[in-house]
Amino acid sequence: MKKIFLVVFITLFGLINNVQAQIKWMSLTEALQAQKKNKKPIFLDAYTVWCGPCKMLDKQTFSDPTFAEFINKNYNPVKFNAEGNEEIQFFGKLYKNPGYQEARKNSRNAVHELTLALGVRAYPTMMVIDHNGKVTHNIMGVQSAERVIEQLK
Q: Of 23, 65, 70, 86, which is most buried by a Cβ count within 10 Å?
């Protein structure tokens, strides 16, 4: 009976701990609104649905509890689909994806205008955007949680 209780306890503790250690992603619109209040820069992950390295970054880096805690504490985190169809008002300009095709939503699609405006050249790209809309950090490719934190400090 003690063994069963211990296994259940450890499993529940692990699940609770894992939930607490997740990045609290938001849309860019939400992050811009939050930034006005909390003055934190935006940490933006520019990804695509078809990108294998983007999925690796999610599994290996973004799921790291230390990384999640660091990002949530210091940034307004955004997952931005660089080929998505979201309309985004960004520092006085409306950005769209006029070439977006709904039939291709799960594969390569047209590049979003904001992707180009931010200077994203490869996927995945992580960047930090300050309160003036200026990109202050640009980190490309899959990197470990420790390496990304090191670059952001």
A: 23
